[in-house]
Amino acid sequence: MLQDKDRIFTNLYGFQDFGLKGAQSRGNWDGTKGLIEKGRDWIIDEMKSSGMRGRGGAGFPTGLKWSFMPKESDGRPSYLVVNADEGEPGTCKDREIMRNDPHTLIEGCLLASFAMNAHAA
To answer: Which positions fall inside the NADH-ubiquinone oxidoreductase 51kDa subunit FMN-binding domain (predicted)?
Structure first.
């Protein structure tokens, strides 16, 4: 069973403050600088070894997906796309993440963009 310490989103039900101060009190942004200092390759390797998968229906391995991005820029911008479409029947997870735990999502976008050398999210 999933332990509370293993949960990524800790405020999905909106019982706590969703703002910056509330997010920081739950540990968001604590280690972001240190993770970035470890470098892009380290972040991607950690994602691969974690076994984390996407929240879409295919459950594709996140670290593997990130590793497909080119290491060097060819001059064109690269983008991180956050798909929050809830078009699947019975799906209502994305709106709760954005509504009640936005800083976890933003922090994840920052780290993902850095790791993949994306220029915009």
So the answer is: 48-120
